[in-house]
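As promised in the previous annual report, we have extended the structural survey to additional targets. Below is the entry for Homoserine dehydrogenase.
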Amino acid sequence: SNARGRPDSREKMTSKSVRVVLLGPGLVGRAVCNLLKSSRAIHAQRHGLKFDVVSLIDSSGYLAESKGIADETISSALAWKQSGKRMKDFQGGSAADMKSALSALDIDPSACVVDCTGTDATTPFLVESLGKGAGVVTANKKPMCCPFEMYKKMMETPTKIGFESTVGAGTPVVHTLNHIIASGDKIVKIQGALSGTLGYLMSGLQEGKAYSEVVKEAHKLGFTEPDPRDDLGGMDVARKALILSRLWGSHFEMKDVKVEPLFPERFASLDIPDFMAALPELDEEYAKQVQQAEKDGKALRYVASIDEKSCVVGLKAVEKESPLGRLSGSDNLVEFYTEIYGNKPVVVQGAGAGDAVTAVGIVGDLVRVALAK
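The corresponding structure token record, generated without further manual editing, is:
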């Protein structure tokens, strides 16, 4: 190594090959492939690892090359996907459902399956891959929120599974929780703002804007899902809360998470234009809550609150001077309160969404899982 303690580029360690099978080659999948490509030298020198993407799988079929798909082919396959076409129609692609694709691929301990999809249909394959000794890294929250018995099965060898990117994208929320648990310090409670979209909404409300105005603004800027209720319903935050709660040690199911949506039940059945048109009806109610919090010296946040007995997601007035109270904009922030840290929590903050940051979480997990095998 040179004087600054960095491995010298001449010192090549012997490299261990990891076969990467990518489920869901969309925007996040593309960011993962780009990051693996640009980090090759670091992975080889620092960790003695060589990652080869051997398969790209979508719901229509797959592209596979047992020695690793060439960079140029990966680039054109991802561009193909981005233009709205399907993997089975790409040159060299095969039509197959995910089940047949994975069984054709010979998943073994040299493989690592990366889930960048948004469906719970991948859960049985992740369980099966782990059973074959492969590693699994997921940015998809749904498998980690499966029924607890299945979750327990997935977590039998925790070193073989990485799910950093399911909570807060690449910001190391999961890693921090694991680290505190490993130290033996006792966690008392966890609370956090786990939605960039809802963070943006809370900041707008605090600035005195009307609820309907901020929602429409976020929708127009593409910060929300096409149907804003997918964000405003709180389910995405509820999944992240469940993942943290289970990692801490709870046996909760999805139904045990108490979720407060940011719209009344009667708005659920409206179509999108009618929903958007009805939003001003809620302005007064939310303005009142913001003002009440302000009067109490607090700030209104959409918070996941987790302790040993419960998991609650909803609006909460927090101390203005707390890390959550000072948070503004779309960053995610999590406070870990523990016995040793007392009333000054360990705080992790950073971007909670975006393809590139999500890829950071995935590739970091890939390295950790590969080194543990």
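The mean pLDDT is 93. The chain has two domains: 16-170+356-372, 178-351. These points will be discussed at the next consortium meeting with the crystallography subgroup.
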